[in-house]
Inverse folding.
């Protein structure tokens, strides 16, 4: 069945896209409005406001946890029933004879609930994803999908991205894009072409989709998400082009959340990972680096061990696997990965993240 999209979210999705466009080049983005929701309501009455607050808080939990089915978790039922308790601000407005309720929930209170209920937390520093799509329809044949040709479809995709808290960007499909990502390369999902075509946008991830109409009422889509040196292939089927496109964005959000969400109450044992960052030539840079690392949800403590010239050496306490920690650090474009430590004469290299072989980065 088609994925539900709130009617007014389409409009807010367009605002979201405009805001993201101002932040080019694309890179991991801190999503500031994860805790704000708009709900259509029949009246300003207390009962309607309570019901809308419950629905809105459920949508917030989807964004914050990355789990699209979190609303069915029985642990959430009493929380959603008393959703007004977690409201900071609300206001009404109307448009086209429809009344809307704007709800702003308390981020700290919501995050504390996530921790108490031992739910996953997807931090708001999220990878920007560049989406390429091609379509093969029975009526028009094969072509690349462009925003100017399918504004309603792209509006729906923006809206779903807003619902899931996944920052999206779409190529402009000018002559540069058409040269770097020809239709044939897009249709076969050529990863090398995707890397070349993404240079001008500098996204954290590329998502390629080919949408095929198999009959008058059936569509099939094949998707490939390329991110952090890994590729994820998945399929979608539905009764319309819009449905299979929405399912592609939804699954991409699921994969990103699975990769970056911090699992509360997990069995991971906290460990110390040593990090060395060069290029720290001012107190401002020092403050930015330490504040960034201390603010990561995956890091419980970031202790400065030494400052040697322009090099800052820290110990990060984390229960996240080393590979996942590196994924998170890679989202900050100011941190450029340096080579691992040398191999000694016996062929031994100290474990990565140890004092002898720290994670090495350069701050730009």
């Amino acid at each position: 069945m088609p994925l539900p999209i709130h009617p007014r979210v389409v409009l807010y999705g367009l605002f979201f896209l405009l805001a993201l466009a101002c932040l080019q080049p694309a890179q991991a983005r801190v999503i500031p409005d994860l805790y704000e929701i708009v709900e259509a309501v029949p009246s300003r009455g207390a009962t309607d406001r309570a019901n809308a607050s419950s629905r809105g808080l459920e949508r917030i939990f989807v964004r914050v946890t990355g789990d699209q089915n979190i609303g069915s978790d029985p642990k959430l039922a009493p929380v959603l029933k008393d959703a007004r308790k977690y409201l900071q601000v609300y206001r009404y407005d109307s448009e086209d004879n429809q009344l809307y309720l704007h709800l702003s929930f308390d981020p700290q209170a919501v995050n504390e609930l996530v921790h108490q209920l031992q739910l996953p937390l997807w931090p708001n520093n999220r990878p920007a994803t560049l989406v390429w799509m091609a379509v093969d329809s029975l009526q028009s044949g094969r072509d690349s999908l462009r925003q100017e040709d399918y504004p309603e479809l792209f509006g729906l995709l923006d809206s779903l991205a807003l619902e899931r808290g996944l920052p999206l960007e779409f190529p402009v499909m000018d002559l540069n894009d058409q040269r770097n990502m020809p239709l044939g390369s897009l249709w076969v999902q050529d990863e090398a072409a995707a890397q070349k075509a993404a240079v001008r946008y500098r996204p954290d991830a590329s998502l390629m989709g080919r949408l095929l109409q198999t009959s008058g009422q059936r569509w099939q889509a094949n998707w490939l998400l390329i991110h952090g040196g890994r590729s994820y292939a998945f399929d979608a089927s539905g009764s319309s082009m819009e449905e299979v496109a929405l399912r592609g964005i939804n699954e991409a959000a699921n994969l990103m959340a699975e990769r970056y969400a911090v699992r509360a109450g997990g069995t991971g044992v906290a460990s110390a990972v040593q990090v060395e960052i060069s290029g720290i030539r001012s107190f401002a840079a020092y403050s930015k680096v330490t504040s960034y690392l201390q603010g990561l949800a995956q890091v419980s403590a970031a202790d400065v061990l030494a400052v040697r010239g322009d090099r800052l050496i820290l110990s990060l306490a984390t229960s996240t696997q080393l590979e996942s920690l590196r994924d998170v650090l890679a989202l900050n474009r100011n941190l450029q990965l340096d080579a691992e430590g040398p191999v000694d004469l016996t062929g031994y290299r100290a474990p990565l993240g140890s004092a002898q072989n720290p994670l090495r980065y350069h701050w730009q």
Q: What stands out?
A: The mean pLDDT is 88.
